[in-house]
Amino acid sequence: MTEYTVEFVGTGETIEVADTETILSSCIEEGIAQEYSCRVGMCLACSAAIVEGEVTQPAARGLTDEEAEEYALTCMARPQSDLKLDRGKYPPSIEDDAATDATETDADGAAADD
After folding, report:
1. What CATH code is carried by the domain that includes residue 41?
2. ∠ CA(16), CA(21), CA(27), 5° rounding?
3. How many Å apart are CA 39 and CA 45, to the nearest integer?
4. Which of 30, 60, 72, 83 can pair with 77 through a Cys bridge, CB separation 3.0 to 4.6 Å?
5. Does residue 30 fall inside a structural domain?
6. How far apart are CA 99 and CA 6, in angstroms?
7. What is the residue-wise DSSP string for the chain?
8. Which structural domain, as residue segments, surrounds residue 27?
């Protein structure tokens, strides 16, 4: 078992994570407030941009192969090197979905009729 340093940019928070543990489980153990919901790699609430380093996350079904190279789902991701992560950063597909959802509602937040 190898341990790696995971630094969360902009927060001053750093934790040690074994290559056999998920980043989220170590955050929870250390009392770091990492957002999450489903814990099965689908909802993307725990997404973080990979600033530096590598992870393995074969069960991160919510990400495309291309997104998995740039984003970590902390509930699934296990470090393969020391890491720098930017929490609360979401893949473009999520940002695009949010923009589409916003344009499909009227000013009162009600769904627009098609």
Report:
1. 3.10.20.30
2. 55
3. 9
4. 72
5. yes
6. 31
7. --EEEEEETTTTEEEEEETTS-HHHHHHHHT-----SSSSSSS-TTEEEEEES-EE-TT-TTS-HHHHHHEEETTT-EESS-EEEEET---HHHHHHHHHHHHTB-TTSPBPP-
8. 1-46+73-89
Name the average pLDDT for the chain. Answer: 86
> What are the tokens at 100?
């589409």
- Average of per-residue pLDDT across 81-87: 97
Is residue 8 in a domain?
A: yes
What whole-number distance in Å separates Cα of residue 37 and Cα of residue 113? 31
| Model confidence pLDDT, tens digit, residues 15-46 | 999 999 999 999 999 999 999 999 998 899 99
Question: What pLDDT is recorded for position 2?
Answer: 97
The number of folded domains in the chain is 1
Please tell me the distance from the alpha carbon of residue 46 to that of residue 88, in angstroms, as a whole number.
7
What is the structure's pLDDT at 75? 95
Q: What percent of the chain has pLDDT over 90?
A: 68
Q: Is residue 18 part of a domain?
A: yes
